[in-house]
Design a protein that fits this description.
Layout lengths: L9 E5 L4 H12 L3 E6 L6 E2 L5 H14 L3 E6 L13 H22 L3 E10 L12 H20 L4 E6 L4 E2 L8 H4 L9 H12 L10 E2 L11 H5 L3 H12 L2 H4 L10 H9 L5 E2 L1
Parallel strand pairs: 1-2, 1-4, 2-3, 4-5, 5-6, 6-8
Antiparallel strand pairs: 7-9
Helix pairs in contact: 1-6, 2-3, 3-4
Length: 280
């Protein structure tokens, strides 16, 4: 059984008022972490639009007024999704501000206050490698944060580990699907926010101390997860993911990484479901 050690760790989650972000924040809290959320939705957290430079500065200042060091940053806030037919120049810029510029600037503001063993997690999407029509603003932002991940991993080497998670079909309402919607998934079911939260906590724990610059995503290549045996045959990537499986509790190990193969059937299913209820 993997035991986490997040008691009194300072954790930041952007876009943490709902969905995947809220689940991540709640899971860190359940492990004793001190969690700071920023979201434009009203609530008890810090309320603000992270596309605005001054909002990020005020948020960082508030956290640092209470703590000298930050242990975890989870860049999760959801960028605008519009396609080339309807997305204006200003809307496209807004998506990049939320999805790429804000994560960059938040890390920049906090880089001199990162605790020893700090971890940064960027929530990307299957869209960073597998596109869907009329999603250009969202896809570009998610591709940008994926690229930002390896740049930051190199730049912050020895100071913080930086990794990215690219969820596929994650139903934020925890709907249980049956039939083809479930059986076409390698894990036998559609994912939910807890699956992503488990990955985040693993990547941030000391058991993952040698993992940085890694992308956990759902393409059918060296990083995909259909079965552990398939990955053993693929070399280094498979060994890394098998090591990940070996550290997980049994109930999580059976779920694996909740990866969906990037085949035409999966794409057609993505197109059937609204991104409002299915986080991707």
């Amino acid at each position: 059984m993997l035991e986490y050690t997040f008691k009194d760790k300072v954790v930041i989650v952007t876009g943490g008022a709902n969905g995947i972000g809220r689940c991540i924040a709640d899971e860190f809290r359940s492990q004793g972490a001190i969690v700071y959320v920023i979201d434009k939705q009203e609530g008890e957290h810090f309320v603000g639009d992270i596309s605005r430079k001054e909002v990020l500065e005020a948020f960082a200042a508030e956290v640092l007024s209470k703590h000298e060091k930050v242990d975890v940053i989870v860049n999760n806030a959801l960028p605008l999704m519009k396609g080339i037919d309807e997305c204006s120049y200003e809307e496209f810029q807004y998506a990049l501000s939320v999805g790429v510029a804000a994560p960059f600037y938040l890390v920049k503001l906090l880089k001199n206050h990162l605790a020893d063993g700090a971890s940064i997690i960027n929530i990307s999407s299957s869209r960073d490698r597998m596109s869907q029509p009329q999603t250009e603003s969202y896809t570009a932002a998610k591709g940008g944060i994926a690229a930002l991940t390896h740049a930051l991993a190199v730049c912050l080497s020895g100071r913080a580990r930086v990794n990215s998670i690219s969820p596929g079909w994650i139903d934020t309402a925890y709907t249980v699907y049956e039939g083809p919607d479930a059986t076409q998934q390698p894990a036998g079911r559609v994912g939910n926010p807890m699956d992503i939260a488990h990955m985040v906590l693993f990547l941030c724990c000391n058991k993952a101390g040698f993992i940085t610059g890694v992308f956990l995503f759902d393409n059918a290549d060296i990083y995909s997860v259909a079965t552990a045996e398939q990955h053993r045959k693929k070399g280094i990537g498979g060994k890394l993911l098998q090591a990940f499986f070996d550290t997980l509790p049994t109930e999580v190990e059976t779920v694996g990484l909740e990866v969906r193969e990037s085949n035409s059937a999966a794409i057609s299913l993505y197109e059937k479901h609204s991104f409002e209820s299915v986080g991707m």
